[in-house]
Amino acid sequence: MKTMKQWMKDWRYPTSLLCIYGFFSTVKPLEPFLIPYLAGPDKNLTIEQVTNQIFPVWTYSYLAVLVPVFLLTDWLRYKPVVVFQCTALLVTTAMLLWLKGVPEMQAVQFTYGVVTSCDIAYFTYIYSMVELKHYLKATSYCRTAQLLGYTVGSVLGQVLVSFDLLSYKNILVFTLIITSIAWITSILLPLPKTSMFFHQRRRDGGEDEEEEEVREGSVSSVRPLEPEALETAKGFSTKDNHLDDVKVNEAAEKQQKNLEGSSDNNSTRNSKKGGCGDVLLRLWKDFLQCFSSRTLLYWSAWWALATCGYNQTVNYVQALWEHVEPSSNFTVYNGGVEAISNLFGAAAAYGVGFSSADWSLWGEMALGLLSALEGGALFAMVFSANIWVCYCGYILFKSLYMLLITIAMFQIAAGLNMERYALVFGANTFCALVFQTILTSVVVDSRGLGLDVVTQFIIYGAYFSVIAVIFFARGLYTTLCQKSKKKKQGEKPEDACEAEDDAQIKGTKL
Fold it and tell me: Which pLDDT band holds residue 488 (cuts at 50, 70, 90)?
């Protein structure tokens, strides 16, 4: 029992539970085959209804609930939001199984938007449960668990569909069972005692630990003298000098006033601290401080723009595959393609950690060049009538995005602490959703242009091409500026040495 209790207090216990939750909540065998399921005999919807009326709801709902969920996550201390996320995932799967019709499927997309907005609770829960020295390992384990869940779900779905082991409806029932395991695991998660903004190291009495220690120390330092000690002090003062007695009394009065002042200050701090207005003001100040760096601003701009295009591509790529090769007359391999793309993306992201490249010098040029490759992969998917070219283009596109987003995370997190990293992550995600909402409402939504899926992907390819041009030009400018600075810095020591030599020669001649 002692060993069990010690292990539950260790950082590995909440990390293990969170990894189990992350794995089972991301095992979704039907996700790679969602459009064939919706367009098939089970739901009997058209591709235009799915892409132009149903899928845009996810983008709008995700944007609408992201900020409230971000604040509630910190206020409720993460665990309740994680449990709510899994509950919403169960509801989404059940609605997808039993409901029919366009309005009902739009409601499914809304609930799924709530699920994805709660991802912030999953990624920030570990901040308050793990010490800073273990943060990198814990984050790596949690991300790996999620990636394995997506991969296992894709492979499992491909096997079940290819060998006709389960129908689409039975796959959803199987998904409900797997998600129930994740829901039970979320309930077992320990509730953090602190959070980033609303609950910062507070005790039951409402005081911070550091302030309480200061108060205890000040009280002990000015503890009143015992009667015997007071008499002794008075005796020595009368024997030595009456002025010593006056000094002792004045010092005691000053210490008493300092104690009263410190207690008043602490009480006012505790009364002001933790309010919603104070938290929002602190958030705004941290936000301004983070984005005051021009370099971080450029990397965050790429993050938001590229994530917008990535989400659009991932959301509607199945519609493109269905257009190129209908699932009614072809055995689709969407699950296998998703699994391979996840593994390649993980390998690319993992390999960045072993790279010795100076990303502060070459990173922005890499953003431009690889974004151009992403745009080329999207164009290849559109203009080729071969499903295998579409599959290969998607694998290349997703792997490049995983590689670049990892580099961006490295660069952004380099000069930030954990609280600000979470804030920057949320701000970048929010900006990406704003761009995605604009793009969806204009290009995809039936109330906008309502373009067909081929034209949509031509626009996405052009979108990444524009990103490539902007960041390649910016990277080229940054590289030339840094090289010129290094040359100037290299010339200055030589000039100084030559000046010293001339002075020594002149001194010798004189």
Answer: confident
User: Is the distance from CB of 378 to CB of 464 less than 8 angstroms?
Assistant: yes
Q: Give me the residues paired with residue 202 across strands.
A: 208
Token readout for 261 is: 């002042």
Gap between the Cα atoms of 477 and 423, Å rounded: 29
Choice between 476 and 336, residue whose per-residue pLDDT is larger:
336
- E strand or H helix that includes residue 456: helix 453-509
Closest CA to 419 of 95, 189, 244, 198: 198
Q: Is 131 helix (H, G, I), strand (E, B) or coil?
A: coil
Q: 108 by DSSP, 3-state: which?
A: helix
DSSP for residue 355: -
Q: Specify the higher pLDDT residue, 362 or 201.
A: 362
Contact 371, 320 (CB under 8 A): no
- Rounded to a whole number of angstroms, the distance between the first and last alpha carbons of the chain is 87
Buried b (16+ CB within 10 A) or exposed e, 285-318: ebeeebeeeeebebbbbbbbbbbbbbbbbebbbb
Per-residue model confidence (pLDDT) at position 499: 47
Helix (H, G, I), strand (E, B) or coil at 208: strand
Rounded Cα distance, 82 and 450, in Å: 35
φ/ψ of 330, rounded to 5, equals -155, 140
Contact 26, 338 (CB under 8 A): no
Q: Are the CB atoms for 147 and 346 separated by under 8 Å?
A: yes
One-letter amino acid of 248: V
The per-residue DSSP string of 237-252 comes to: HHHH-HHHHHHHHHHH
pLDDT of residue 58: 95
Cβ(368)–Cβ(469) below 8 Å: yes
pLDDT in tens, 225-257: 344 343 434 343 434 444 344 444 554 454 444
Asked whether the beta carbons of 141 and 15 are under 8 A apart, the reply is yes
Confidence of residue 52 (pLDDT cuts 50, 70, 90): very high
Q: What is the pLDDT of residue 280?
A: 74
What is the Cα–Cα distance from 493 to 495, expressed in whole angstroms?
5
What would the pLDDT profile of 405-448 be if each residue is shown by its tens digit?
878 877 776 656 555 666 787 888 899 999 999 999 999 998 88
Q: Please give the helix or strand (H or E) that residue 351 lies within, else none.
A: helix 334-352
| Residue type (1 letter), 32 | P
Mean pLDDT computed over 163-174 = 94
Q: Could you tell me the pTM of the whole model? A: 0.75
